[in-house]
Amino acid sequence: MDNFRKIDIDQYDEDVLLESELYEPDPRDPAQVLDDVKQKVTAVRSSLAKGDITGALDLVLDNAPYGPNVDEAKNINLQTLLSILNSTKATEIPGVVKALSTDAQDTLMKYLYKGMAMPGWGDVSGSVLLGWHEKLTEAAGTGCIVRAMTDRRLV
Amino acid sequence: MAPSEIHSLSQTPITAHSFNADRSQVAVSLNSNDVQIFARQGQEWKPTDVLSEHDKLITSIDWAPNTNRIVTSSQDRNAYVWQQTQDPQTGATIWKPTLVLLRINRAATFVRWSPNEDKFAVASGARAIAICSFDPEGDWWVSRLLKKPIRSTVLSLDWHPNNVLLAAGSADMKARVLSAYIKDVDKRPAPTVWGEKLPFNTICGEYTSPTGGWVHAVGFSPSGDVLAFASHDSSITLVYPGQQALYTIKMTSLPLLTLTWTTENSIVAAGHDCQPLVFQGSESGWELSGSLDDPSSNKSAGGARSGFGGAAPVGRLQSAAFNTFRNADSRGLGSATSGAGSGESELFTVHQNTITSVRPYAGAPGNVAQVSTSGVDGKLVIWDTTAVTPATGLGGIAGRLAAMQLK
């Protein structure tokens, strides 16, 4: 009973809008994306060692992997980002988020929501993410949250 | 700055509004199947006529200033053209409807007369735009459909001043410029920055919203050489096809739903933030310059602010609902005792809910002195476009917008 509800009726529609048509694909090759992300890990570590949090965030958020077939790169990038978020003192956060570009702020917001959607994974800590979320919303406004929700280029 | 006129027309949302040529009458749809016409009597608006023919919610109304005809579109997939005639029996003046055969199988979402008022465009959920022109032989309005390459519901339209080009904003996250040239109606248009040869359904431009939001509003500048569109990713984008330039302003506030050009270098746009914002710029760049509303001067209207804690207000985190729950949690107050009357959920803006429509009210195209806005709160407000409360940088307006939501 009700099996007909499971039929994918979209396959009979010639004009169906495909997931891949909703956004511009990443021009880079998946292997290249993974490579880029791995290179960032060391660069981020050296930035953090110097105490340059904004620089480290800029590195991680620039050209963040999105789209299909790059799950490993996405995980590594999230891990790198979490290491930055977790090692930042709460008093430093407002200055750091204000120094980011609008695009970087939007990407950071996407990662915060991604992190909150997977509690218990790796180093995800709800209270750290919420702390960043509060400061980021103060700096970038509700518009930043709206963009994190509408953007189909999921990180 | 305070708006010049505020009229509370109803307790229900106003889905669309359109004034007649001398602004003595206004046609509105109060979230119903009927169009209500109000006539101005001093400072009051008195209901006069009701246009009822649609059998589902009306989505859009446009009143042609020169030919004095009203066109309405509705979720019942129809459009009607209403014309004032003498009733043969009683001799009274009535609005006579003419059905338009749109040939669409989804709701009609938006309708606008062309500048010459000899045709109109109806947007729809059927991934199509119907361009309707009058056929005197058959004595009816015939439609031709613009279909390709629209992939989803068309949410807004705007005509180019040359009566041929049409801008469309759509839920497939794109704004497009298309040709709606009809051989029997239009003379061959002069070349524009959008193209030279413009047969029906020529695509002159296709622009994607910056971070994947539905395109809610589109508008050609008074000269027709610039296109503005606002999308649900809280951004507004300006397109200069001549210079191949594209400017995007990512806002810190909630998305815009409607916009209108006031001069060649300024736009009034409004939406979920309940206040009309002013954007100014030129081919070298654009910025948010301020708001026609001034939430900080309306503080008294909102009654006393809730004064818990000294924490910085963060967006909607300090909302009435948030405080209700916090009181219930920390002080054991029930929701019944925490409410401080109707002022509790009042915003500091003039509009108390989303603004869904902003239209020119006074002044010539390119030099609009006043605009009118209507929205979900049932208010119709008229604003002077010169009375801009400046935004002290983007951070300033972010702070103010956040404060506006604070309660």
Automatic annotation (TrEMBL), chain A:
<comment type="similarity">
    <text>Belongs to the ARPC5 family.</text>
</comment>
<protein>
    <recommendedName>
        <fullName>Actin-related protein 2/3 complex subunit 5</fullName>
    </recommendedName>
</protein>
<keyword id="KW-0206">Cytoskeleton</keyword>
<comment type="function">
    <text>Functions as a component of the Arp2/3 complex which is involved in regulation of actin polymerization and together with an activating nucleation-promoting factor (NPF) mediates the formation of branched actin networks.</text>
</comment>
<dbReference type="GO" id="GO:0044396">
    <property type="term" value="P:actin cortical patch organization"/>
</dbReference>
<dbReference type="Pfam" id="PF04699">
    <property type="entry name" value="P16-Arc"/>
</dbReference>
<dbReference type="InterPro" id="IPR006789">
    <property type="entry name" value="ARPC5"/>
</dbReference>
<dbReference type="InterPro" id="IPR036743">
    <property type="entry name" value="ARPC5_sf"/>
</dbReference>
<dbReference type="GO" id="GO:0030833">
    <property type="term" value="P:regulation of actin filament polymerization"/>
</dbReference>
<dbReference type="GO" id="GO:0005885">
    <property type="term" value="C:Arp2/3 protein complex"/>
</dbReference>
<keyword id="KW-0963">Cytoplasm</keyword>
<comment type="function">
    <text>Functions as component of the Arp2/3 complex which is involved in regulation of actin polymerization and together with an activating nucleation-promoting factor (NPF) mediates the formation of branched actin networks. Arp2/3 complex plays a critical role in the control of cell morphogenesis via the modulation of cell polarity development.</text>
</comment>
<dbReference type="GO" id="GO:0034314">
    <property type="term" value="P:Arp2/3 complex-mediated actin nucleation"/>
</dbReference>
TrEMBL record, chain B:
<comment type="function">
    <text>Functions as component of the Arp2/3 complex which is involved in regulation of actin polymerization and together with an activating nucleation-promoting factor (NPF) mediates the formation of branched actin networks.</text>
</comment>
<dbReference type="GO" id="GO:0051015">
    <property type="term" value="F:actin filament binding"/>
</dbReference>
<keyword id="KW-0677">Repeat</keyword>
<dbReference type="InterPro" id="IPR036322">
    <property type="entry name" value="WD40_repeat_dom_sf"/>
</dbReference>
<feature type="repeat" description="WD">
    <location>
        <begin position="51"/>
        <end position="83"/>
    </location>
</feature>
<keyword id="KW-0206">Cytoskeleton</keyword>
<dbReference type="InterPro" id="IPR001680">
    <property type="entry name" value="WD40_rpt"/>
</dbReference>
<dbReference type="GO" id="GO:0030479">
    <property type="term" value="C:actin cortical patch"/>
</dbReference>
<keyword id="KW-0853">WD repeat</keyword>
<dbReference type="GO" id="GO:0034314">
    <property type="term" value="P:Arp2/3 complex-mediated actin nucleation"/>
</dbReference>
<comment type="similarity">
    <text>Belongs to the WD repeat ARPC1 family.</text>
</comment>
<keyword id="KW-0009">Actin-binding</keyword>
<dbReference type="GO" id="GO:0005885">
    <property type="term" value="C:Arp2/3 protein complex"/>
</dbReference>
<protein>
    <recommendedName>
        <fullName>Actin-related protein 2/3 complex subunit</fullName>
    </recommendedName>
</protein>
<dbReference type="InterPro" id="IPR017383">
    <property type="entry name" value="ARPC1"/>
</dbReference>
<dbReference type="Pfam" id="PF00400">
    <property type="entry name" value="WD40"/>
</dbReference>
<dbReference type="InterPro" id="IPR015943">
    <property type="entry name" value="WD40/YVTN_repeat-like_dom_sf"/>
</dbReference>
<keyword id="KW-0963">Cytoplasm</keyword>
